[in-house]
Design a protein that fits this description.
Blueprint: H1 2-17, E1 32-36, E2 47-49, E3 53-60, E4 63-88, H2 94-105, E5 110-117, E6 120-126, H3 130-137, E7 141-154, E8 158-161, E9 165-168, E10 174-177, E11 180-183, E12 185-191, E13 194-202, H4 203-210, H5 213-222
Parallel strand pairs: 5-8
Antiparallel strand pairs: 1-13, 2-4, 3-4, 3-9, 4-6, 4-7, 5-6, 7-8, 10-11, 12-13
Helix pairs in contact: 1-4
C-alpha cells in the first residue's frame, strides 16, 4: 500500500509541475512500463549484453516467468534473426536443448538452442535440409519461420523470439546493454536486419528516474 500511495503522490506532483491543464479521468495505473532504450540501442545490427548469467522467459502479467538460463564467461552479443529455419520436432528444457545444439554442430550444422515459451525449448538449424537435420538429431524435423534475436557468447548460440524477455541474474536482476546499466527486463523490437532495445521496468522505479528531483525530495520528506 505504501508503494501505491507513493506512486499516486509522484503522479500528482508531476501533474502539478506541468504547465498545461490536465483533464481528470479514471484510469488504472500499470505496475510496469516499456521504455525504448533508443539512446544506446536504436535500429542497430548488434548489441552487447553485459551479464554472465542471462535468464530467458516471458512476461507474465507484471512479473517474469523464467524459461531457462544461459551463462557466459564474458559478454553476450544479440543480433536480429529473421528467416526460415529447420526445427527439431521435439521439445525439451534449456539444458537439453543446449546439449543437442552442441552435439548436432559436430555434424557441420549451424545449430541454435531455440526458446519457444514457458519452459519449452528445441533446436533450430539454419541453411540446412530437413533430411540432414533429421539424420543429425535422430528426430523428425520441419521448416519454420522465425523472427527474434540470436544470442551468442554462451556455450551455444541461442534464438529468442521477439515476444520473449530477458533478465540479468547476477546482481539484483540488473543487466548492461552496450555498457549502460539497467534494472528490470530486457526485450528487443526487431525490424528486419535492425533492432531496438526495450526496457520493461517497474513504474515506481521509472518515475523516480524521470520526475524532477525537487518533486522526489518533497515526496521523500512527506513519506
Amino acid at each position: 500500500m505504501k508503494g501505491k500511495k507513493k506512486i499516486a503522490s509522484i503522479l500528482a506532483c508531476a501533474m502539478l509541475l506541468s504547465a498545461a491543464p490536465v483533464e481528470a479521468m479514471a484510469y488504472t495505473v500499470p505496475d510496469t512500463v516499456r521504455v525504448g532504450l533508443e539512446s544506446v540501442c536504436k535500429n542497430v545490427a548488434s548489441a552487447s549484453i553485459g551479464v554472465w548469467e542471462l535468464q530467458i522467459g516471458m512476461q507474465k502479467g507484471d512479473g517474469f516467468q523464467r524459461g531457462g538460463v544461459i551463462t557466459s564467461s564474458g559478454l553476450f552479443t544479440a543480433r536480429p534473426a529473421v528467416g526460415d529455419y529447420i526445427a527439431v520436432d521435439k521439445t525439451m528444457d534449456c539444458a537439453d536443448a543446449l546439449d543437442m545444439a552442441k552435439d548436432m554442430k559436430k555434424s557441420g550444422l549451424d545449430t541454435y538452442a531455440a526458446y519457444l515459451s514457458g519452459g519449452e525449448w528445441t533446436v533450430y538449424v539454419k541453411d540446412a535440409s530437413v533430411s540432414a537435420v533429421e539424420a543429425a538429431a535422430d528426430e523428425n524435423a520441419s521448416r519454420v519461420s522465425f523472427e527474434g534475436v540470436a544470442i551468442t557468447g554462451g556455450e551455444a548460440p541461442v534464438l529468442v523470439p521477439e515476444n520473449a524477455v530477458m533478465m540479468g541474474g547476477n546482481v539484483a536482476d540488473t543487466f548492461k546493454l552496450n555498457s549502460m546499466p539497467y534494472r528490470g527486463m530486457l526485450t528487443f523490437s526487431v525490424n528486419g536486419s535492425s533492432m531496438t532495445g526495450v526496457n520493461i521496468i517497474g513504474l515506481e522505479e521509472y518515475l523516480y528516474g524521470v520526475v524532477p528531483s525537487k518533486c522526489r525530495k518533497a515526496m521523500t520528506q512527506k513519506h
